[in-house]
Amino acid sequence: MGKRFILLLTLLTLVLVLGMLAVAGISAPQEAKTDKIAKEKCLGCHGAYDKLREKTKGYKAASGETVTPHQYVPHADAQDIPECTECHTPHVIPLTDKSTVVKPKDLGFCFQSGCHHMQNLQNCHTCHG
Ligand code: HEC
Ligand code: HEC
Ligand code: HEC
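A: This is the predicted complex of the input protein with heme C.
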């Protein structure tokens, strides 16, 4: 009798602890790195990145230059994909009305932080020797 009761108690405790661990495991990491997840989440539906690059290669920037806005940064190695939210406002999910998607106005992110500071995509050497 006593043995069975202890067994039952042990099982119940185990279930409780496992349940708590599961809740902690699901919620904690997501909050810790929202940014990282966002990029991967977008690409889960809009990837692969190289496909997106191909699809948008006819984009015309405000400067008149035709280029895909979807670059690797730095450009030299095809590795670092910038956060989509540097330019995009996330849309609701699931998306029922495509007309509600706010599209980026231009390539603001590319013009920031001392990069394409003349708001065009000319090679730096054309002006800087
Ligand atoms: C669960 C899947 C899903 C996720 C996650 C998602 N999208 Fe979308 N998105 C869609 C669907 C479906 C459409 C409308 C259908 C289409 O692409 O033609 C759409 C449309 C768009 C459009 C408009 C496309 C056009 O042709 O006008 C943009 C821009 C876009 N999403 C960007 C993003 C960005 C940036 C993120 C992440 C912050 C994101 N999406 C996350 C599914 C998703
Ligand atoms: C440097 C700014 C920038 C970044 C970063 C960026 N985008 Fe875009 N994206 C744009 C611009 C600009 C357009 C074209 C908008 C238009 O058609 O007017 C676009 C268009 C799109 C479209 C619509 C494509 C179509 O068929 O017309 C999708 C989907 C999209 N982006 C997804 C993403 C995802 C996913 C990421 C992150 C991996 C991302 N973008 C990162 C600037 C950016
Ligand atoms: C259309 C011409 C043009 C292009 C293209 C250009 N620049 Fe410049 N840049 C200038 C001029 C003019 C100045 C000096 C005036 C100023 O400070 O804004 C300058 C200044 C700078 C400075 C500050 C230098 C200092 O001594 O203070 C940096 C850094 C710089 N550019 C980086 C870049 C990079 C990186 C690129 C390429 C991604 C680039 N520039 C493309 C014209 C250009």
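Confidence is low (pLDDT under 50) at residues 27-33. DSSP finds five helices and no strands in the chain.
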